[in-house]
Each structure stands twice: as structure tokens, then as C-alpha cells.
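Blinded run. Sample ID left blank on purpose so nobody reads anything into the name before looking at the predicted structure. Input follows.
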Amino acid sequence: MPEGHTIHRLASAFDEAFLGARLALSSPQGRFAAGAERLSGQFLVSSEAVGKHLFLGFAPGGRALDGGSPESYIHVHLGLYGSWTFAGDEAFARVHAIGAPRRRLGEQESTPGSSGAGRGAGRKDSWRHLAPGENVRLRVVGPHGLADLTGPTACAVIDPVERAEILTRLGPDPLRADAEPQAFVDRVRRSRTAIGAQLMNQAVVAGIGNIYRAELLFRARLDPFVPGSDLTASNVEGLWDDLVPLLRYGARTGRIVTTEPEHRDIHPIIRERSRGTRQNGDEDPGVVPREKSFYVYHRQGLPCRLCNTPVRDAEIAGRSVYWCPRCQSVRRRRAPRLRGTWLD
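Blinded prediction complete.
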């Protein structure tokens, strides 16, 4: 499932490509046909990420041109398999696919079920001739390009009141300027639930997924099974202080990297599953490869990069958690933590 930094990259991509434009919406799959028809022809006036939720704000012409606030939103949660895939002219040069792994529209493969992807290839406006795939829930078309949404868990038209109700159920998002770290500290410390479970609870902190959960706890040297109420305020504040730059790095680069440079060539291997841990830019030279990017995630049974103890895995709240039983023995005191200047 895409983690919070990915959704912030999506919001930024929509800002750059579509903000202020009148958009044509359609639902090739048909499951969002009523919503697409309702908003097609309106202007995109905002694009906002909160945790793993994306809110695209729309307003009709007169209101939009007067700088008005959104009248309606498209609320999208990508879930495990959702993805946005982009195609267009130079305005779309920065991004082509965000979410579950996809190739650029117009290549040999694109979103699942696509047809005619290569039609018009080589033309300056070839993106206008790309046929949508049969599984595309929503197609957004602007003056300079398009975006296709495939496989989301949620895609619905909501009003401002419904958006506010969703936000009240979420904890603070470390990538937002309005985040309140103290709310995170207080929620963790008043619960007996294991910290490894709390970090996956979107009501405690918004945007954290399985990779950041495992890696954050390793970097803090914290036992994932320690109850939140056993941690000091300093423990929990330290988690937030490390989480913010890690997520900012992810939002800036599109990649989750948590290893310090001096540790990346120590036991550079992970135990990938059938699809592997795909990240944006895996094929690009110069990026930190995924087998060097994590300390414990998908490294069960392999030696810890720092102490050679085999990394363990277990289940917390239905999801696998990975940890080093030797390095992550801290339960109450503040541990020395990893933090390099590469994150700045």
C-alpha cells in the first residue's frame, strides 16, 4: 500500500498539472460514471493530501474564477492496488506513475487492461490518442495531459462536511504544516497497545505504512511490542522527530530510504516476495537500490546490518513486523538514534 509520502507527491503532481484548469472527467470502467458526469467541466481548485487520503477540490466556473473554495471533492484512497498514471506534454515531465507499480502510459504496458496504448506514439500530442484501459476507474483530462486512476479502495464525490468528518478520524500527518506532534505523543502514551501496532493506526499518526513502521522503530532502537504507555515522552517525541525528515525525503524523491550511507553496503540483500518491494525510479542509475534501502523490512532471517543478529518477523494486528531482537531492546529509556545529514 502506498505510504503517506506518495500521496503528497500525488497532490503536488495534480497541482502542477491540473490546478486552475477546466477538466473533463470520465469513468471507462463505469463504476464512477455518476461522479465523473457530475464534476466534468468544473475547475480543479485544490489538491490536498492528508495521510493516505487524496482530496481533489472542484468548483464550477464562476466560483473557481473568483478564487472560491471547493464546492465538491473527489476523495481517493489508493489502498493496496491503486495507482495514478499520467501522460501529457512538458507539464507532465516530472511524474508518470504514482502508487502500485505501473509503466508510463504509451509504453508497451501501462495500467492493467489498457488497450491501444501505443496509438499515436511519436506525435507531439500523442497523449490525446491514448485509449483508456477497461479497468480505469477515473480518467482526468486537462489542457496538457491526462491521469488515469486504477484499482483504488475508495473513489467518491464528497462535500466539505464529509471531508471534515474524514479528517477528524485521522491523527496528525507529519508532512503537513498544521500537524500537531503533541497529539501524536499523547495518543501513543495513553494506550497500552504495542507501539508497533499504534504506528499503523491512522487515528494515531496519518500516513505511516509497514515499511516506515519497521524502519522507524529500528532507527529508534525500540522494541515493537512495548506498550505505548511504557514509553517516555522523549521516546515518542524522538519517533516524530525522525519520522518528519524520513517522510520529507520520500516526498522529495519518491523513494523510501532509511539506511545511513555507511550501512548500505553491509549485507545488501532483502527477501523479496513475488513482486518485490518496488519503488519509483528502481531502473534509474544513481538511486539507492531497494536491497540497500532498509534495515529490517523484508530482511527476516538475514543478519542485521549493525550487529549480525538474524532479523525476526512476527505479526502485529494482522501485519508483519520486522525487527532486530538485539538492537531493538529499548523499552523505556531514550536510545541513541540514527540520523545523518543526508536527510536534510
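Unblinding after everyone has recorded impressions. Residues 30 and 137 are 7 Å apart (CA to CA).
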